[in-house]
Design a protein that fits this description.
8-stranded antiparallel β-sheet, Alpha-D-Glucose-1,6-Bisphosphate, Chain A, domain 4, 10 helices, alpha+beta
């Protein structure tokens, strides 16, 4: 992760975040001055941001909304107080309602972003200034420190060319905390087709099979929020194993970019939250799956089943048999 330190100073009413990136100052600056790039990392995993307004001038405003996995929304606005490209900018960050008006009872913070060249790339120092100790304690209790760390953990994928970042790495599993896991896999193919491969039964049955020797015996897809889905697999021929399946409910569908659903193994009470995101660049699509487990023990138990190996076998099949056609 790029974040190296978070310092809360109640004497000076500041919170300082220090982060290091293996990219030049100009490249990091461009990520923070382009709303389309900001949308890929400003919100933490599971809460991607959408910037609906953007006036990158002193006195101008930006408005963004972070969209939670269960339909939650949290909006904010920036007023640009100073801009010194590519070294520094300063904003007044406020919580706002759907009309862009500041929310009562939620503290605003003046944030400065400073970018400095280092031998390995760029060091960014972000300092948030608060009006009171109560304001600092409030944002800390709301999870701002954890949210910043998780949000900025997404920046490496933005700063690099997508193929340089992920090509050849296979299915990559990252433990974000005790209950959250991020799984990424780059596939050579357009996002539209990758989305269809995840949502059309006739395509799913061609690749979503895990290791060789299994077949999908049931595939009921949820096409609208609130609908339930069900998928089942069984071994073929002499392949060892017991039939199994998953079911759940669709919570969010934003084709062809994002879908969120609950998931539980049929006959089992344990439920996870699965948040699938697709991002395309130059004909390649980065598949990112965020999974929320009920506890650390469940997370470790499921990962120990060889889930990642099964996913890699499926993604390899997706590339070779479906996207390559």
């Amino acid at each position: 992760m790029p974040v190296t330190d978070v310092i809360t100073d109640t004497d000076n009413l500041t919170m300082t975040v220090i982060a290091d990136f293996a990219a030049p100052v100009e490249r990091v600056w461009s990520a923070y001055s382009d709303p389309r790039q900001l949308e890929r990392f400003w919100g933490p995993p599971g809460w991607p941001a959408t910037f609906s307004e953007w006036d990158h001038t002193v006195g101008g405003h930006a408005v963004y909304t972070m969209n939670g996995p269960r339909g939650e929304r949290s909006s904010g606005s920036w007023e640009f107080l100073a801009i010194d490209a590519p070294h520094r900018f300063e904003v007044l960050d406020s919580f706002v309602d759907e009309d862009g008006k500041p929310l009562e009872g939620f503290p605003a913070q003046r944030m400065s972003f400073d970018f400095e060249s280092t031998a390995d790339g760029t060091r960014m120092v972000t300092t948030s200034h608060f009006a009171s100790v109560d304001a600092i304690e409030q944002v800390v209790s709301m999870g701002q420190v954890e949210g910043i760390k998780l949000a900025m953990s997404q920046l490496d994928a933005v700063l690099q060319d997508l193929r340089d970042y992920a090509q050849g790495k296979g299915t990559n599993v990252e433990l974000l905390d005790d209950v959250h896991v991020r799984i990424t896999r780059l596939v050579e193919g357009p996002r539209e087709l990758v989305w269809r491969a995840h949502n059309e039964p006739e395509l799913m049955k061609q690749w979503l099979l895990g290791p060789d020797g299994w077949e999908m015996t049931e595939c009921i897809v949820a096409t609208e929020v609130g609908q339930t889905y069900r998928t089942s697999w069984a071994p073929v021929g002499d392949t060892e194993g017991q039939p199994f399946g998953f079911e759940g409910e669709a919570l969010l569908i934003d084709a062809p970019r994002r879908s969120v659903n609950t998931e539980r193994m049929i006959g089992m009470p344990v439920e996870t939250l699965n948040d699938l995101n697709l991002y395309e660049e130059d004909g390649a699509t980065l598949i990112t799956l965020y999974i929320e487990y009920p506890d650390k023990e469940t997370r470790d138990m499921i990962l120990a089943t060889g889930m990642a190996d099964g996913m890699e076998a499926s993604y390899d099949r997706l590339e070779k048999e479906l996207l390559a056609v």
